[in-house]
Amino acid sequence: MDKKVTMDKIVNLCKSRGFIFPGSEIYGGFANTWDFGPIGVEFKNNIKRAWWKRFVQEDPTTYGVDAAILMNPTVWQASGHVESFGDPKMDCKNCKTRHRADTLIEAHSKGKISAEGMTNEEMEAYIEEHDVKCPVCGKRDFTAIRKFNPMFTTSRAMTGDASDVVYLRPETCQGEYVNFLNVQRTTRAKVPFAIAQIGKSFRNEITPGNFLFRTIEFEQMELQKFCKDSDSMDIYNDYKNRALNFVEDLGLASDHLRYHDHDKLAHYAKAACDIQYLFPMGWQELNGIHHRGTWDLSRHQEFSGKNMNYLDPITNEKYLPTVIEYSIGADRLTLALLCEAYDEEELENGETRVVMHILPALAPYKVAILPLQKNLSEKAKEVYSMLSKEFMCDYDEAGSIGKRYRRQDEIGTPFCVTIDFDTLENNTVTIRNRDSMEQIRLNIDELAKYIQDSVKFN
Ligand code: GAP
Q1: Is 254 helix (H, G, I), strand (E, B) or coil?
Q2: d(CA 394, CA 385)
Q3: Ligand 1: does its nearest atom lie under 6 Å from the Cβ of 81?
Q4: Higher confidence at residue 157 or residue 250?
Q5: Which pLDDT score, from 0 to 100, does residue 37 have?
């Protein structure tokens, strides 16, 4: 990771430029929640659209859904979340803060040690042996490690007793499993096929978040591929490749990405892998690819009493498909892309410009329209009105042209169109490229196509 990028710089830029604000800020904030501002919402929507385009729109074997956040509570018994979903937490007796033991170990070893397969006793021993201290007060005085279930609960308030408890989903994929039969029947899909969705998930995370990296409310982009067990490892490897290609195509540098194959697997799994990204705080999980065997469908079959078997129309064989899952957090990916895009460049005149080299297809605004002087605003607004039918555009007539370029550089706008007095004469404008800062002159009639060709995501 380039030393210029720090989490503080990213957080400050996001706040000052309208990408992301602290949640409920006027009330002093609400830990690990963030609100996307006018620039951030465009950026994240473009990321989600790119994922959907790549994995749903362009893949004839994948079908989208948008399932309810609040599900029948039995779903979470079937999934195992009620019984065994949980993080190893411990409290600092000195400063009364709560921590995840696995995260402390991983941070202390700078990502060299994975606590994935460790028992509570092994983690406690590691913490003692390596003198892992509380990151808040610097003391090592922890309680024993206990399991903490991070599912948020709410209540339907029907009877007022425990039977009213409803969970806010901690992952979106259960909405895909419970709709397996509905989607297969209505689309007449043949195995292998996938169900995908993008939506909010909620986890009562106890570890401090590192900005968007770990939040209590976040969006997941998840996909479950239902396949024959004999094909499952090929499909698993295929998604490992596709997942890596996708984030590289969005602009993450290959030397900031690596696979992390899991050593310890769930009893039903044949393989599991993360793709890690080199965030400013070190190598951390960006997404997961999991071989889940028939675990999910068999559990839903058991708990719902519904037969979840697939009938192969050619062989007449009935079986529960194996599932390969690909899961990536939209917010975590947003953070990785912000870190990757951030740059401070020395200019020839000795000044430094902050520029976000965001992939044009993901840029919040594709173009900014800047009249050189206020009395050119009528023509500039005409250009804005024409281009805004095609793309998100910004319009800015305040301040020197140099300052306006800098503002657009900081939010990653790939093109700035300047309207000057020649525009009134010959219908041409100057278009400036964010990365090279080169300027060319174009006829207004050619603008939309020129920009369109540069901002496509393939
Ligand atoms: N259905 C599988 C599943 O949820 P996970 O590894 O717990 O697996 C998948 O989560 C992805 O969701 C992660 O790789 C990460 O990108 C994102 N994610 C998980 N917890 C998150 C959190 N608290 N804040 C932001 N993103 C999170």
Answers
A1: helix
A2: 11
A3: no
A4: 250
A5: 98
pLDDT computed for residue 160 by the predictor = 64
Give CATH 3.30.930.10 domain extents, the chain: 7-69+173-248+289-338
- Per-residue pLDDT for 66 more than 80? yes
Cα 379 to Cα 277: distance, rounded to the nearest angstrom: 45
Q: Which residues pair with 88 in a beta bridge?
A: 147
DSSP state letter for 221: E
pLDDT tens-digit profile of 131-142?
999 999 999 999
Q: Is 220 in the pocket of ligand 1 (CB under 6 A)?
A: yes
Which residue ranges does the chain devote to CATH 3.40.50.800?
Answer: 365-454
Measured in degrees and rounded to the nearest 5, phi and psi for residue 92 equal: -85, 120
Alpha helix (H) residue ranges in 250-376: 295-304, 330-341
147 C-alpha to ligand 1 centroid (Å): 18
Give the H/E segment covering residue 200.
strand 193-202
Residues written for the chain: 458
Q: Does residue 203 have its Cβ closer than 6 Å to ligand 1?
A: yes
Q: Interior CA angle at 265 toward 259 and 271, to 5°?
A: 50
CB of 328 sitting under 6 A from ligand 1: yes
CA distance 331 to 217: 10
- Give residue-wise pLDDT tens across range 303-341: 999 999 999 999 999 999 999 999 999 999 999 999 999
What is the Å distance from ligand 1's center to 325 Cα? 12
* Structural tokens at position 290: 């999991």
* Burial (CB count <10 Å: 0-12, 13-18, 19+), residue 196: buried
**Superfamily of the domain at 365-454:** Anticodon-binding domain (3.40.50.800)
Ligand 1 atom 21: residue of nearest CA: 214
Choice from 149, 213, 279, 285 to test ligand 1 binding pocket (greatest atom count within 8 A of CB): 285
Inter-residue contact 195 to 62 (CB < 8 Å): yes
Q: Between vectors from CA 332 to CA 288 and to CA 30, what angle results, nearest 5°?
A: 130
Burial group, residue 417, by CB count within 10 angstroms (0-12, 13-18, 19+): buried
What is the third-level CATH fold of 7-69+173-248+289-338?
A: BirA Bifunctional Protein; domain 2 (3.30.930)
Is the minimum distance from the CB of 225 to ligand 1 under 6 angstroms?
Answer: no
pLDDT at res. 115: 84
285 within ligand 1 shell (Cβ under 6 A) = yes
Give 275 Cα–ligand 1 centroid separation in angstroms: 12
What does the pLDDT read at residue 3? 57
Contact of 24 with 301, CB cutoff 8 Å: no
The CB of 91 under 6 Å from ligand 1? The reply is: no
Token digits of residue 312: 């192969």
